[in-house]
Amino acid sequence: MKRFLAMVQNEVVKIIKKKRFYIVLLILAIMVPIFSYAQMRQSLERQESYGTDWRLEVQQAIIDNQNSLSSDRVPQEWKVYRQIYIQQMQYYLDNDVNPNEPGGVTFTREFIDNSAALFIPLMILTIASDLVSSERTGGTIKMLLARPVRRWKVLLSKLTALLMFVSLIVVSAYAVCYLISGVFFGYSGWSIPIFTGFVLNGSDVDLTYVQATPQWQYLLMQAGLVWFVGIVVALLAFMVSVLVRSTAASIVVMMAALISGSILTNMASAWSSAKYLFMVNLGLTEYLAGNPAPIDGMTLGFSLAVLAAWGAVSVFISFIVFTKRDVLT
Amino acid sequence: MKQPDDSFVLRVRDLNKKIGRKTIIHSISFDVREGEIFGFLGPNGAGKTTTIRMLVGLIKPTSGSVEICGFDVQKQPEEALKYVGSIVENPEMYPYLTGWENLMHFARMQDGIDEQRIREVTELVHLGGRIHEKVRTYSLGMRQRLGIAQALLARPKVLILDEPTNGLDPKGIKEMRAFIRELASAGLAVFVSSHLLSEIQLLCDRVAIIGGGRELAVGSVDELMGAGRGMVIWDVEPKAKALALLVQYKDIVIVDSVGAEALEDAAAALLNERSIVTETPEERVAEVIDVMVREGIAVRGVHRIAPTLERLFLQMTEGEGIE
Predict the structure, then answer these.
(1) Which of the following CATH numbers is that of domain B8-226: 1.20.120.160, 3.40.50.150, 3.40.50.300, 3.30.1370.110?
(2) Fold of B229-306
(3) CA-nearest residue of chain B to A154?
(4) DSSP structure class, residue A280
(5) How many CA within 13 A on the CB side of residue B23?
(6) Per-residue pLDDT tens digits for B12-58
(7) Are B92 and A139 a contacting pair at CB < 8 A?
C-alpha cells in the first residue's frame, strides 16, 4: 500500500511538472473574467430598459416567449422548450423570487451549468488524454514497465492520480469562478431560493414536487453531477489514451466525441436510440434546472446509468489492453 | 562449458516470438554468469531489441522462458525484475523532470532505495554536478549515464544494456567500456547488445550471435572469433604477379570486390587500386611475404584485418547470406 501511494505520488508529480494543471487554471482565469464582463454588460442593459424592478423583466420575457409560440417559423421542439420556460418563470413570479438575481454565486451556478457538458470536460482532457500515450510517445513506458511492479498497479496509480485531478479541476472551476465573478457582482447570494423538481409531462410542467432550495445547496448538488460527468469523461479519455499511441490523436478522438455530443443533443430528438450514447448524456445539470431532456425517455437516473456503464466498460478495456499488450515501440 | 552451478543469473530457454503469423524470434537460448560480460551480436533488425524486451517482460514470449536469479519473468515478474536493471534502446527519461527527480521517480517504485543510494549511483556515473538540472538540457552522453544510474538503482544482479555506445564520441565509448568492465569485476553480470563485432571483441567474455531472429552461435569470444578466418590486405606491386603467386596456396582465398565491400570502414579506407584482399591463415603471412620478396614483388604494406561481422555471418550460414 505504501508502495502504491508512492506510485500515485509519482503520477501527481509528473502531471504537475508537465504544467498541465496550470494550463487549466490559466484558461479559467482568462475565461471567467470575459464571461463576467459580458454578464455585467447584459445586466446593465436590462436595468436601462426595465429599471430596477426585476418583475417587469421577467414579465417581458414571458410575453416574448408567448408571442413566439404562435409563430410558424419556430420549430416544434423549441416551442416545447419555451412553454416550459414560461411556466417556470411564471412560478418564480408567483412566488416573488428573482431568478436572475445578480451575484457571484448566481453567476457561478449559471457558468457551471453552461460549461458542464463541454468546457469542464475539455479541461479534463488536457490532463487525461496524454496520461498513458505520453509515456509511449516519450519511450518512458519501457522504464516504467521493466520494474518489479505488476502492470495493473502502474495503471491503477495513474487512474487514481487522474481522479484526484478531476476532483481538483471541478473544485477549482467553482473557486476561480466565484472569486473572480465576485469582483463584478459581489460575493453574496448563497441563500437565494432556487426552484427544483419541475417534472415535465410533454409540454406541461408538473409543479407538485417543486421545492425551493437555497442556492448553496443547489450548488452542491450541481457540483456532484458535474464531478460525475467529469469522472466519466476522464475514464473514457484514459481508455483512448491507453489505446492510441499519439497524444494528439488521443485528444482529437475525445474532442470529436464531446463536440458531436453537443451537436447531437440539438438535433437527435427524433433518433431515440441515440440516448444510449454517452455524449448526449453529459448535460446532467439540465435535469436539475428542470430543462427538457434532449431525447424522450431520458431522465436523470437514465443518464447516470448510461454514463456509469460507459465508464465501467472503459476501465475494463483500459486494464485488459494495458496488462496484455506487448510494448513494441 | 556446462557447469551445474547456480552462478547463472540469467537463463534463456528456447525463446520464440510470433507476431501475427510471422515468427520473428526462433528458439533462442543462452545463459549469463555472475561477473561476466555477455555480448549479444547481430546486425540491425536481427531481433536483438525484441529479445531484450522479452528479457525484461515488455514483450510476452510466444513460447520459452526467461529466468532471472531463478525467477521466471512471466510468472513471477515482481521477484524476477528486482534483479535486473536495463536500458532498452535509448535511455528515455522524463525530459521535464531533473535527473534527480527521474531517479526519485524510479526509486519510489521499489523497496530499499533511499536518497543515499541515489547519491551513490549519481557519483558512480559522474553526474554529480548537473543532477538537479532538467533532463531536457542533457547531452546524449549524459542521458546515457543517467540511464545507467537508473538501471543500477536497485543493486541489480544483471545489467542489460542495448547498444550502450551508440551515439557516443570515441572518448565516451572508451569511458563506457571501462565502466562496464568495472561493474563486471564487482560481480555484476552485464548483457550488452551490439551490431559491431569490434565492440563485442573488445568488451565481452562470451557472445551469442544472432541473425534473422535465429541464434547462429553461442560461445566464448576467442573461440568464435578464431573461427572466422582473418583477412589480409596486400598492398603490392606488380599486382598481377602477386595474384598469380597467391592463388597457388590452397589455404588462401582471394576475396573479390563484392566480398571486400563487407570490410569495416576503417579497413576499407586502406584499399587502393593495388590492393588484394585475401583470407589467409595467420601462420602463412610471413612465409608469403618471404616468397614475394624473393620473386621481386615490391611489398608496400600488409594489413591483417579482424573478420567482420558480415564475413562471420557468411561463414556461419555457409554463404547463404543473412535474411
Answers:
(1) 3.40.50.300
(2) Alpha-Beta Plaits (3.30.70)
(3) B109
(4) G
(5) 10
(6) 999 999 998 999 999 999 999 999 999 999 888 889 999 999 999 99
(7) yes
